[in-house]
Amino acid sequence: MTKAFVSLLAGITFALAGCASNSTALSNSAAPSTPQTQICVAASEQDIAALFDRWNQSLQTGDPLKVVANYAEKSVLLATVSNKPRMTPAEKEDYFHHFLENKPMGKIDSRTIEIGCNTAFDAGLYTFTFAKTGAIVKARYTYTYKWDNRQWLITSHHSSAMPEKL
Q: What pTM did the predictor assign?
């Protein structure tokens, strides 16, 4: 071995030893070193699909607060008929106050559901029929959900009218 190679190898070994001792020092000063395991709530595709039904049923009450109760405190609503992102419960309540005036009823046309550990998403196409006006709106949607140790809540909801007339 050349002297340069031995020097390089010694430098790398020293650097790695320093990293190891720093990580040990950090882990010893932190909380207990036993790894925290996350418990994942069991959920099926039917369970996640039922969350849309729960949301849609809350629309039928006509009460914006019951609709907003489906959303996590920290969540975002990107609604079909509003240019403004709704970030707070008050902003969501304001949106649903106006949206509910036309008595909407949603129906899933097609969907894809994916489930992770305490998270899920449901994305696809839906149709809204508005009883007050008779209007029918076809739209794309995405709901993301998280389990809050009590129930599944919406963390993001994006809905946009279909861009092309079919």
A: 0.77
